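Hi R.,

Here's the chain you asked about this morning:
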Amino acid sequence: MRELLRHRDFRLILAGQSLSMFGDWTLLLVFGIWGKSLTGSNAIAGLMIFAMAGPGLLGPLGGLLADRVRRRHLMVTLNVLSLPPPPTAPAHWRPSPRLRPATGHATGDHT
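And here is the predicted structure, written out as tokens:
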């Protein structure tokens, strides 16, 4: 491991992936809390967490794929696919009136 840490490129990718994973797990926790606060249902909170974490069960298939294709090409492709949608994509989405009180917009409280 020490030999790997001597390489700048490895340290950069390790730091970037560590920050990304921290953000992913934080989002997972927040979605569960958000589902519970919106609905009051533990089942909905659990379903939201499973919907986010469930695809992780496909990890062994990802390892199988990584063993059979060029890793650099696979990493670049997956990182491009994980980019957020363009800013114009949600322009037509309208939040449900039921969700607005959770953001404070329905009450006018913007603090």
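One quick note: The chain has one domain: 2-82.

Cheers,
M.
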